[in-house]
Amino acid sequence: MNICVIGAGYVGLITALCFSKKENKVICVEKNLEKLNMLRNGTPTIFENGLNELLKESLSTNSVQFTENLEFGIRSSDIIFIAVGTPAKENWDVDIAQVEGVINQISPYIEKYKLVVTKSTVPVGTQRYIKSKLLENNVERENFDVVSNPEFLREGKAIYDFFYGDKIVIGCDSGKAEETMKKLYEPFKIKMVLTNPETAELIKYTSNALLSVKISFMNEIANLCNEVGADIDVIAYALGLDKRISPLFLRAGIGYGGSCFPKDTKALVKMSENHNCNLEILKATVNVNEKQRVLPVKILKEYYKNIEGKIVAILGLTFKPDTDDIREASSLYIIEELLKNKVNIKVYDPMVTKEIKNIFPDITYCDDMYECLAGSDAMIICTEWSEFYNIDLFKAGELMAQSVIIDGRNILDMKNIKDANINAYYSIGKGNIKN
Q1: Residue 207 CB neighbour total at 10 angstroms
Q2: What local confidence, expressed as pLDDT, does residue 158 receive?
Q3: N or C: which end of the chain has fewer CB within 10 A?
Q4: Closest CA to 325 of 10, 106, 4, 1
């Protein structure tokens, strides 16, 4: 099929390349010229497993084309995917200004039937709103249908999820549109959920919100474990054996982050308030997460009483391993709190980006974890990068001024901690050690 993807961000780029792999002709429209030139030259603009190879293959076979020419993209395509940003407003509402901008820009070029598909995460009612905007812009009704087709991609595994995901959600109110979408996705051999647009739009938010609830619930139980001497990992294992619960998203830590969970959970709370239906469990989920992500600072204050002037090493900046994404990462909030307390901060992450250096220009960025630990009064593990699992605790103890470890992701072995004679070790729900 002839496809146009508007926006070469995370979702748009993955969508364009994965469709191009299935013998479609894809035009990806991007207005950022620096990003556009990188993609044309085969250089990925984001870090994602397998992306480099897929981009080069798609370019070599001419199955994808990157352009800033929106008119060319629309007129050359039958299906138009909108994959632009939908950031959160301060009041937790979803800002769909970029989506609205796209609709206004593409309207003059829709002179024959096009299928307009929202891939961006949008609030309930957006499909109806897009239809009304197209009509308002004098697009003939017979020349378009609008479909809600939310993405369910895990960062770090996005390409795998696109090809082998557990579901494809298609929300539409047109038989013609439904048949086109089924034909488009049939080569992927993934179960399709066919429903109305409102349900499709809500599935995305509900999915992320439910996973957020699981995480916050386990973090609450983990905090109780530390008070009563229980082991959160054993509890999680036992819960995971219950087929009604499943073992996924039961790991305790210092909260969830990323581009989806925080934004979508808050958006669902706001949507419920807009419809006079308060979701109290989700409100509590958000509150728990906001407290949990700065828990390491509370622990440091309890241990040192006064942390002003202390040197704290932070291992991991991204919200999860195998990505360069720092959006809503716990590390950001921890750094902010530490700076308020006049703490000196050293950080190390294997995927450190210009973005975080622009946010925090006055902290020390290190090239490896041992350089980061040298002279530090405490270590906070914020991201479970694989190299942190194998940290030499004896070496860490020798390098650090005081070997206080806050394991925000529960990746270190308690026995190894005891053998290394660390000054103090704090876990999230597995107990603490003080020598």
Answers
A1: 16
A2: 96
A3: C
A4: 10
CB 117: neighbour CB atoms within 10 A? 29
Same domain, 262 and 357: no
Assigned domain for 179 exists? no
**What DSSP character marks residue 234?**
H
148 burial (CB, 10 Å; 0-12 / 13-18 / 19+) is buried
* Phi/psi at 6 (5° precision): -100, 110
For residues 341 and 267, membership in a common domain is answered with no
Considering only CA atoms, which of 159, 165, 157, 212 is closest in space to residue 328?
212
Domain with 385, as residue range(s), is 293-434
Distance of CA 153 to the CA centre of its chain: 9
Residue 184 lies inside a defined structural domain of this protein: no
CATH of the domain at 154: 3.40.50.720
Overall domain count for the chain? 3
Cα–Cα dist 253/246, whole Å: 18
Is 225 marked active-site?
no
Is residue 398 situated within a structural domain? yes
Burial of 229 (0-12, 13-18, 19+ CB in 10 A): exposed
Confidence of residue 381 (pLDDT cuts 50, 70, 90): very high
Cα–Cα dist 139/131, whole Å = 9
Residue 335: phi and psi, rounded to 5, are -60, -45
User: Where does a domain end: 255, 290, 325?
Assistant: 290
Residues 276 and 333 in one domain: no
| 360 and 282 part of one domain | no
The one catalytic residue in 260, 366, 372, 382 is 260
pLDDT band at 353; cut points 50, 70, 90: confident
* 246 and 316 fall within a common domain: no
Per DSSP, the residues of 43-83 read --SS--TTHHHHHHHHHHTT-EEEES-HHHHHHT-SEEEE-
Length of the chain: 435
State the pLDDT at residue 106. Answer: 98
Same domain, 6 and 143: yes
Residues 230-246 as b or e (16 or more Cβ within 10 Å = b): bbbbebbeebeeeeeee
**Model confidence pTM above 0.90:** yes
In this prediction, residue 43 has a pLDDT band, given cuts at 50, 70 and 90, of very high
Distance linking the first and last C-alpha atoms of the chain: 65
Sign of CA dihedral 228, 232, 238, 239: positive
SS3 (DSSP) at 308: coil
